[in-house]
C-alpha cells in the first residue's frame, strides 16, 4: 500500500502541483484547503504523514496540528511556511511538528524530507538511549530518571539530546546542531540553542555523573564521569 499524505494547503495552484508531484512519486495524496478541513479529513481517513501550510483560513496549520496531536502523537508533521522567523519555527516544533520547509522550496527537497520522516517513524521504536541513570526514549519523546515519572520533551529538546547522546563523549559542533533544528546558523539560532541546552542541563541535573559541557566557540559535549 502506498504511503498516504494529507496535504493541507490553501493555495489551490500549489496544492495541485504538489499533489501531482507526490502522486507521480508513488504517494497517495488527500488534500484539504484549510486547517479545519484538514483536521476533519485526518480524523476520518488518517494519514502516514501530514504536509501542512502554516498560514491558512478558518484554522491555521499550528492550531490544526495541535488538535491532531491529541488524536495521534506519532504521525509526522511537516510544515510549509513563508515565515522563517525563529519564533515561528520554535512554535512549530513545540506543538509537535517534526520538520519544516520555507517557501519557495524545491520539489525534490520536499520528497526527500517526507521520505526521511517516514523512515524515522518506522525506526523510532528502536531508538532508546541510556544516559547515566536516565533513559531517553525517542518513540514517545520521554526522558526518565530511575523510577520517577518521565518528562515529556519537546521535539527540539528530544532531537538535540538524541544527537548529543549519539555522540557521547564527543564535541558536537554548534553549527551542526543548529542545522539539525533550524537548517541555518545565525545569531538568533545560536541564542535559541543556548536556551535549549540550558533546559536539557536542568532535566539532567539529578545525575551528578552527567555533564553537558559548553566547549566555548566550538559546540557541546554530553559526557558521563566515572562514578
Compact overview of the structure:
With 227 residues, the chain is α/β, with parallel strands linked by helices.
* Rg calc: 19 Å
> How would you write the strand order of the largest sheet?
2-1-3-4-5
Percent in strands: 15-25%
Q: How many β-strands, per DSSP?
A: 12
Q: Please give the oligomerization state of what you see.
A: single chain
Residue windows where pLDDT falls under 50 for at least 5 positions: none
Structural class based on helices, strands and sheet pairing: alpha/beta
Termini distance?
Answer: 51 Å
Q: Report the average pLDDT across residues.
A: 88
Order of helices and strands: EHEHEHEHEHEEEEHEHHEE
Helix content class: 40-55%
- The best one-word shape is elongated
Q: How does the major sheet shape up?
A: 5 strands, parallel
Number of helices: 8
